[in-house]
Amino acid sequence: ILNYDIMARFRRRTCIILLLFILFICSIMMALKTLRPDRAGFGDPFGLGLLPELQQRTVLLDSKQNSVNRPQGDTVTRVSNLHSIAVNTMKASTSPVKKMEEELSSPNYNFHIFYYTWYGNPQFDGKYIHWNHPLLPHWDPKIANNYPKGRHNPPEDIGANFYPELGSYSSKDPTVIEAHMKQMRSASTGVIVLSWYPPGMADENGEPTDDLVPVVLNYAHKYNLKVTFHIEPYKDRDDRSMYHNVKYIIDRYGSHPAFYRHKTSTGRLLPMFYVYDSYVTIPEIWANLLTVSGSQSIRNTPYDALFIALLVEERHKHDIHRSGFDGMYTYFATNGFSYGSSHHNWASLKAFCDSNNLMFIPSVGPGYIDTSIRPWNNHNTRNRVNGKYYETAFSAALLVRPEIISITSFNEWHEGTQIEKAVPKRTGQVVYLDYKPHKPNVYLELTQKWSEKYRKEQEQWLM
User: The whole model's pTM is what?
Assistant: First the structure.
């Protein structure tokens, strides 16, 4: 009996020691996991050796940092080399990697997201572009005099109220483009609506970006995303120049596997073009291009497409119909800013579109704040309310059962509509907004959640 007692006590003690050891190991592992930064997957050296793909990105980032100390004259050669690397890499691997496909949410080609490639920095562009955005004066001189003037001074001071996890990046950086594609794919969006100006043209604060389109298409294809074009209001935009530019886009990029084509109710596969500030041009000019009898008609030609106009005021819906457009979108992320961006008007707009054989594409956004570039525009700020504003917009969009939902935006940082990862940052007198108490990827996760919800509800609509 004594021996049995001793053995029983020994076994109990051994089990307790073993249990404590296991708990100790688990505690160590949890502590290490907690120490790992959230953004390690997109450029931090911590832990990147775990995956060959990420290790390769670390080498690229290290060489990019070293290049800052090189002479300025190297910039053009460096950009050219990086473009060659990006294009050659994508040519060598045109189909998505199976493992990556399993890890990411499937793309939803009815979720379109506005994307901007107008950012630049000294490493890739020889100077900062757009991050150094000027402070825009109010149109009333009396009001303008009450606000600061000048421009932002990156990298610590940028033209945005939030600060990107990737820093003041260049849109030419292949590692940045790939990080963006991975984020958009993780959000279960499917179509990138790429801001586009014709070759040699740009917005007043930027530089031409058409040469980036092939790189964006290649990386989009790697992540099974599609690309369509958001045609900006370039100088002298009219029926003739639009015909020329649509032809240019389709001839140059239309054969790429990532080029988006939308399947219509009649079974046709057509390119789609969003036309920003379309209301600036009178309906008669658009009708020349977009109606069958128009003098510059693109209809029933190899360059026919779906053209989506921006609706701001209620009267624009009649102009859009008269112009020959195929649909309308609302773009602005400020609920109440315009008739089109006001959620309570979406039901009547959808009804108008349905009765006139037009597509209605509501635009949802996570919030709005542009006081970093328009310091006088506080009244249009819309607080994100920790994601509730975004979810309210999605809920309003789903109520009208749209064929497509557009998202404003992935990375329009100036207007604070981005869902790209942002991080807390404080520099001198500037304290940037952030997504706390949530992680930097919270708006990507919310987008993915609503993408799945939309898919399920759409199945019910079609039954």
Answer: 0.80
